Amino acid sequence: MRSVYITRVSKFLPNEPIGNDEMEGVLGMVGDKPSKARAIVLRNNGIKRRFYALKNGKRTHSNAELASIAIKQLFDEKLPISKLQVLTAGTTSPEQILPSHAAAIHGQLGINQRLELISASGACCSSMQGLKYAFMAIRSGEADVAVSVGSERFSSWLTADRFQPEVENLMQLEANPYIAFEKDFLRWMLSDGAGAALLQPTPNEEGISLKLEWIETTSFANELETCMYAGSVKNEDGSITGWNDMDVPEWTKNSVFALKQDTRLLGENIVPKGGVYLAELMEKHGLTVDMVDYYLPHMSSEFFKKQIFEHHERIGMNIPYEKWFYNLPQVGNVGSASPFLMLEELFHSGRLKKGDRLLVMAPESARFSYAYLYLTVV
């Protein structure tokens, strides 16, 4: 088994950053009324700006384009993209059911060679699941150059026109003409962008590389019901009914394809279950707080920061805040791209020195999956 190194990391964030006061002007007001949830959500999540692949109500980039731009930045004359062999891609927001997201990116890259592709389905953990496949491909000797990318184009799901049929239906029923909090909540949480990592069996000759010591993922779907979902509705018994089992008019009348989240279930489980898994990994890998120089937690909201810190304390992983590194306030919650965006910023910050050890945490609330990545700077 060979060693595996992240030798380059890149990002692409589309257009100009959007501040909190500009969001509703870009996304629009549902039912021509300001959101009741917006101020509360923004006050708690700590996000100051985000990026949208959207201008004047029109798309500027597809999800595959965002990913392909980030990927191309990993290559140059010294290492041309013609050397790429394996591409893994994760996203929450693919633009089609078929072909796969990785295939869409491959086509968008405009390269001459065929590739081995893996599309990881899911939410924030999908890019980490793809990264594990790339890690195993390099480690086993099946490939010498692999790229893992996480990308999102949430903005197309968040614009007011997507919810207008539901609001009009509510008005006809003389009901409260506001979309439910479970849908409105996520309109103020999510951002567009892409992050990518290049994996090779040897480190850079100049500068730093990140040696992948281990990457672990798990799912608690056997214990917990669905929390974040799209293309379905959640029933009173906790089960979900998918779009293909609904009448077509219901798709728009109830904003079935909107991204929704059960915030009660999220608050009760997202931090504790992540701690349960981390405690298991501490035992498995002999991991202690002294073995972490930088902690990169992907958080959907700064609301969870104190909870994560306190829960880590209870399991003996009391990582002080000065070791935390995240960029949620500056780039927003970019789902599957967020772990790579944190790594990219730290990798190019000039702060890392050889021997530093990084622990990356990526939770996914869809049905509670978690990924932890441990790296050493070499």
Describe this structure in words.
With 378 residues, the chain is α+β, with helices and mostly antiparallel strands. 31% of the residues lie in helices and 22% in strands. It has 13 helices and 17 strands. A nine-stranded mixed beta sheet has the order 7-6-8-9-1-10-17-16-15, sandwiched between helices. A hairpin with a 4-residue loop joins strand 16 and strand 17 (369-377). The longest helix is centred in the last third of the chain and has 23 residues, at 263-285. The two termini are 18 Å apart.
Provide the helix percentage: 25-40%
Rg (CA only): 21 Å
Strand share of the residues? Answer: 15-25%
| Secondary structure category | alpha+beta
CATH superfamily of the largest domain: Thiolase/Chalcone synthase
CATH topology assignment of the largest domain: Peroxisomal Thiolase, Chain A, domain 1
CATH class of the largest domain: Alpha Beta
Please name the CATH architecture of the largest domain. 3-Layer(aba) Sandwich
> What order do the strands of the largest sheet run in, or round the barrel if closed?
7-6-8-9-1-10-17-16-15
Task: Give a brief description.
The protein has 378 residues and is of the alpha+beta class.
